[in-house]
Amino acid sequence: MVTLATVLLATAEPDFAARLYGELAAHSRENLFYSPASVRLALAMVHAGARGETATEIRRVLQLSPDAPSADKRLLASWQALAQPDTNAIQSMNAYQEEALARRRIVLHIANRLWGAKEFKFLPAYLSVLRDAYGAPLELLDFKNAAEPSRKTINASVAKDTEGKIPELVPNGFIIESTKLVITNAIYFKASWRNPFAKSRTNDEDFHRSEKPAVKVPMMHQVDHFSLADTADAQVLELPYGDGELVMDIVLPKAALSATESAFVAGGLAQWLTALKPAKVAITLPRYKTRSSADLAKTLEALGMNTLFTFGKADLSGMDGSHLLYVSRVVHQAYVDVNEEGTEAAAATAVGMAAGGMPMPEKIVPFVANKPFLYLIRDTRSKEVLFVGRLIDPSA
What we know:
- With 396 residues, the protein is α+β, with helices and mostly antiparallel strands.
- It has 2 domains: 2-191 and 290-336, Antithrombin, Chain I, domain 2 (2-Layer Sandwich), CATH 3.30.497; 195-286 and 351-391, Alpha-1-antitrypsin, domain 1, CATH 2.30.39.
- Helices cover 29% and strands 30% of the residues.
- The chain is built from 12 helices and 16 strands.
- The strands form 2 sheets. Strands 2, 6, 7, 8, 9, 10, 14, 15 and 16 form a 9-stranded mixed β-sheet that branches.
- Strand 15 and strand 16 (385-391) form a beta hairpin.
- Helix 1 (14-25) packs across helix 9 and helix 2 packs antiparallel against helix 3 (52-62).
- The two termini are 32 Å apart.
């Protein structure tokens, strides 16, 4: 049994993030937000105990590195370093510099955990990999006789790891008598924009929804230098956090959102990012919060994990030495808050600065996000997509 606790993050390969988006978006026309990185990390921990065809399917769908889980260990270490300030640099800072650093700090907390049935025996080798590569300790619970207290224990842990943004990941009825293992991944991200929006410039303005009348929502404004791509069918704006290692990419369709979504699922992200160029941009962007939840078993089956969810076909013998285990459910939740200061989601932050001489007069390009759009939060160094979302209605 696997539980994916998401609080804003996404996947190792854009292809997985895009394919997952295609499956989730096909079944809803409302706001959508999820963390492909959280899903991938949780299922990578399952992969560590998978064998045979089950392992092959998971590896193919997640596009895992040939040296996984070592690659995941390195990735998690790089994210941890991203969120840690340079101690030596801080010691030489004055009060003003320390305050500036605090405003630019990224909070990126990732917690992996194993929750095992107390009567069940797991292979020491599997527990060792999960502990060493993923930092996932094993806690034994009495699923059989104390299902509800076990559920509350897991939910309390996830809520703590996500600063209360995901208070109840595991729903009623999730833990049953036959439950042997629950795996959770929780990600909390909070980051400030490199260029914050002035609250004094936020006004209530129309957001033009696709299938409903326009609605008044708080719209943020600023004019500054950003990376922008202007293609035949969309504008793509890159908003950096902190020093720029983490960014939000906003893809604003020029026609229907569905066409932009199809391009993303087909691998359009790489082309959009390649087309980014420096520009002076007048931004209009809604302030919004959104929350999503999904049961992903059917979605992952559609992507190609055909044996993992079937008793008798799933091969998770690397966990316990038997063929008795299979995955019964995968649940996922995500939350995001985009405002003048930055983004919170159970997510991440970065700040960057550029130096230059006296600017020549230049054209100001408008970027007016007053209609449905696609957006991503990604790590520019590892190319990892932490979160993906679509905003249909900021007032929902």
